């Protein structure tokens, strides 16, 4: 329902425009007293919830200058209220809060488009269009700014890509459903908007630039099976017996079928985000990102072992190779001791580790158990922590305070690591001995944000970026550009730390991990938030070590079949929300050497010893 205050502009709209509005809003319910209320929730697609709909989205409102915007909390964890997009030069912008569960208010006076997010969960989106009653069309502003300081015309390709992403993100009916044979249709509000180029019809522009009613690529299994299985955090799938979303899905690498879905209704498991396993590959550790718990369950049976309190918004979990201790990043925790260390199998919390910063997200551990690196999302830097001395080796800036470093990857010999900056659209290569930046990889260098021309590989809003177990490639999932990019990480070459290939991805492209391919080599598995398929990437199809010929080897559905084992019935968003990925067995250097013989014997000699 269109969310507008009653005013003279509404009363004087033409019959045509009133017809459009009537088709979008049953009963024409308008905001009272020029006030917008967002409830921040754990519910997929409705993280910023107004309670009313516009073209299927309950996260957008339209008001007039002076609107009071009120944020309230209805979530199990903390969130920031961050104005990620706003009219250039708008009064009171940027607006940004500390992570909290309480409420916040602000007044918007400058006409234009305002998009809010949570810095901890950066796909949570809510928008307000502040419309000047004296102009025709809904005002987006002639120029828009990102919180990073970048500004661009509101008619530019970058602006419309961001708008398209907003309407996909906030309406589950707009997500790609590979369980259906219907074309992919994205519903946009049928309204005219005022941009720098004049008044245009919003869906006409978006459909002309990006298409609509597109046929989805067919599902197809990779020709070569994988060793073991692949676990995917299908974070938005809803089930019976729960008020919170989220399952964890296991795909059998032999036949690419979904073997099991774990919803954990007994604990109301809330948005499981990322996973890891123990040295014997017997349990699954799953971090509940919209909560404060780490869940441990039996990998084979799906039975709950324990549910451990660890802190606000636990994001990623990994083990140390030398003692199997767990380390969980509390991405909602502003304290500097924001990494939790747990005993093997999470039997108890051992300590909090001080990394000098709060809000870490996707960390990585070295092959020898000596080092941990963290991306610190709110402070725009990265920490290198030394377990041998229990001290911080370095805290290194990788951008400004709004660059949003979100994920790390590491070479298998721990000589270098990489930090993906979500909002800076870059990957930073760091020398682990000298603690210096070796290279800044600009993922937008082949993109014209005004015209939209793409002249080479493009990675807009990068997220997970692990390095292959043999150190030859890094695969990065990019949320905004819906692309997968492959970086050559082989040392000493002209192409070292250069993006050498781009592949298509699904909307909300997010999670990546490497697993073993039967007979040798690796697959990189890529999951997307707003799709229910898993992409299988072969980073080196001809086994020559050069990742420039990487290709998509298959696409596997993440929705259940009649043969899928479940602990609850699927009630909505079937297979959706793909984020964290865990291939079993773990084949990264340091972990692969600790595998039991039952797993190790399924690998080739090169896979058992990924670096020589």
Automatic annotation (TrEMBL):
Transmembrane segments: none annotated. Residues 1-31 form the signal peptide. Keywords: Signal. InterPro entries: Cupredoxin (IPR008972), Host-pathogen_enzymatic-act (IPR051200), N2O_reductase_N (IPR011045), WD40/YVTN_repeat-like_dom_sf (IPR015943). Coiled coil: none annotated. Gene3D superfamilies: Cupredoxins - blue copper proteins, YVTN repeat-like/Quinoprotein amine dehydrogenase. SUPFAM superfamilies: Cupredoxins (SSF49503), Nitrous oxide reductase, N-terminal domain (SSF50974). This is DNA-binding beta-propeller fold protein YncE. It comes from Nitrosomonas communis.
